[in-house]
Amino acid sequence: MKKQDFSDKVVIITGASSGIGSQIAFKLAEQGAWLALAARDVDNLQEVANTCSHLGAKVIIIPTDVSDKTQCQNLIERTLEKYGRIDTLINNAGFAVAAKFINMNDLTVFEKIMQVNFFGGVYCTHFALPHLIKSKGRLVAVSSLRGKLPSGTADGYGASKHAISEFYASLRNELSGTGVSVTVIYPSWVKTGITGRALKADGTKKGVVSVHENNGMAADKCAKIIVSAAGKRKREVVMTFEGKLGLWLRLIAPALVDSILKKKTDQ
């Protein structure tokens, strides 16, 4: 019988209303996890919760904007009120930007992506950590290949992913001996619609999904890899061969890799 790492385990998932987050919720529901689902889109969040309930999970929804520290604290407190403990925190919430830094008339979009993609994870971790130490639980961050490799644009997305990756890598060292595992996931392109929702320099949505995303990994496959890695308490996962090759090649030919990545950004 396949091991059910998350049966009766309390798991918080941010960004759970769609995309990778919703698929993670479904995978964990199938294992009988006790879920606390967080996102801003309440209607979609409720639909995901309904499906999770049908799949056998205990589930609550906690509408949360992770850029707001108070709402992150509420997420943790509500989860504790419902379940009495926290076994896993999966920081998945995030969004993308489709703009060049030189075209930003102000830094509103740049500041927003750092607030959501970086500080959102930091806030949730801050309030959950004492309880994860008690349960010898799991911390999981969904970063991006952009958290290891640069892009052709300094739009803030890569900076936010580099930041959360370094934060978790250092926190892993700090937590050595506590029993808390720290897993960082580095997906490449995943078909979630994120590029269509990406914000332009003026704060409006791009509205068109990129060709790279259209050719990317299915969200349910990505979620399966994440849940497996979290269950095994892996340090990190770089999902694609192309990503692993890029990381290796950049050690010996960084200018070549930068040129390739810029061409991909321009497509």
What is shown here, in short?
With 267 residues, this protein is an alpha/beta fold. The chain is built from 10 helices and 9 strands.
The tally of helices reads 10
Low-confidence stretches: none
Do you know the CATH topology?
Rossmann fold
Question: Can you tell me the overall shape?
Answer: globular
By CATH reckoning, the class would read: Alpha Beta
Number of strands: 9
What is the CATH homology-level superfamily?
Answer: NAD(P)-binding Rossmann-like Domain
Cα distance, first to last residue? 46 Å
Give the count of structural domains.
1
Q: Biggest sheet, in brief?
A: 7 strands, parallel
Q: What's the oligomerization state?
A: single chain
How would you explain this protein's 3D organization?
The protein has 10 helices and 9 strands. The protein is an alpha/beta fold and 267 residues long. Strands 3-2-1-4-5-6-9 form a 7-stranded parallel beta sheet, with helices on both faces. Strands 7-8 form a two-stranded parallel ribbon. Helix 1 crosses helix 8 and helix 9 packs across helix 10. 45% of the residues are buried.
Helix-strand blueprint:
Layout: E1 10-14, H1 19-30, E2 34-39, H2 42-54, E3 58-63, H3 69-83, E4 88-91, H4 108-135, E5 138-142, H5 157-174, E6 181-186, E7 190-191, H6 194-197, H7 211-214, E8 217-218, H8 219-231, E9 236-238, H9 241-252, H10 254-266
Parallel strand pairs: 1-2, 1-4, 2-3, 4-5, 5-6, 6-9, 7-8
